[in-house]
Design brief:
By secondary structure, the chain is mainly α. The protein folds into two domains: 30 residues; 177 residues, no CATH class. It is 79% helix and 0% strand. Helix 2 packs antiparallel against helix 8. The longest helix has 55 residues.
Length: 253
């Protein structure tokens, strides 16, 4: 669970409610079902129009990393790389074939298998870099869907407000109903702005940020496998790859 996502949303909503109450309002009055229906599904549909189908699917599938955390353990992965590097240096590349089955990460397994199969380091790098690029494009497309939704929502909030005002102005003969209609109309604007800057936009930006951690781990695996292929000293290889775990930055402070 990512407390900054869940806690941030809850804190913002609570603060909105407190501010409204202090001004003599009722937060429940900001929840207008017709405004939500007009603004939110319409925004998500419009964002889908602007996004390739596979990335729309990915956008919802990968929401789990916005509210949770990717299953990454770069330090453990680094230890596995170094263990395999030591074995390969002592017993030869073919000796690491038995270790492949112990690796959970499919990307890591494929890289090691290419190494055991005797592919040249340049070929391994080319193939693994292509796969990393595809992963990066996948998360970029998924995040872009939410960012597009965040950019679009305020506009649909405005559309909802205008629609509400049109209906309200048709009730000129009844000032009370007209006032209620105007108040309801402006809830669409609130819904659009809150959805944009509290939900959809932040979802996209956080997804991009966490995708960078995934990509960084893949890059560490790539460099580790190339290091093994080149028979680098395991100690030197560890120092080279430590930067991908963030530990080298901490040690420098």
């Amino acid at each position: 669970m990512d407390i900054t996502t869940i806690g941030g949303i809850i804190a913002a909503l609570v603060l909105f409610a407190i501010g409204d109450i202090l001004e003599g309002g009722n937060p429940a009055g900001l929840i207008h079902i017709s405004s939500i229906i007009i603004v939110v599904p319409t925004t998500l549909s419009a964002a889908a129009v602007a996004t390739k189908q596979k990335y729309v699917v990915a956008a919802y599938k990968e929401l789990k990393i916005v509210f949770g955390n990717p299953q990454l353990n770069p330090e453990e992965t680094l230890d596995q790389i170094i263990k395999i590097a030591e074995k390969a240096r002592k017993e030869g590349i073919l000796s690491i074939e038995a270790e492949i089955g112990n690796i959970d990460d499919p990307f890591f397994r494929r890289g090691l298998q290419m190494l055991v199969d005797g592919l040249e380091p340049e070929v391994i790098r080319e193939r693994m870099e292509l796969e990393i690029a595809e992963i990066e494009e996948y998360y970029e497309g998924a995040a872009k869907y939410w960012i597009t939704a965040g950019e679009t929502t305020p506009v649909f909030g405005l559309v909802g407000a205008v629609m509400g005002l049109i209906l309200a102005l048709k009730r000129l003969e009844n000032p009370v109903e007209m006032a209620e209609g105007i108040a309801g109309a402006f809830t669409a604007t609130v819904t659009g702005i809150v959805s944009s800057y509290l939900l959809f936009g932040p979802f996209g930006h956080k997804m991009k940020a966490k995708a960078k951690d995934i990509i960084k781990t893949r890059e560490m695996i790539l460099e580790g496998i190339i290091g093994i292929a080149l028979a680098k000293n395991p100690k030197m290889l560890r120092e080279q790859l430590l930067i991908y775990t963030g530990k080298s930055e901490e040690q420098g402070k």
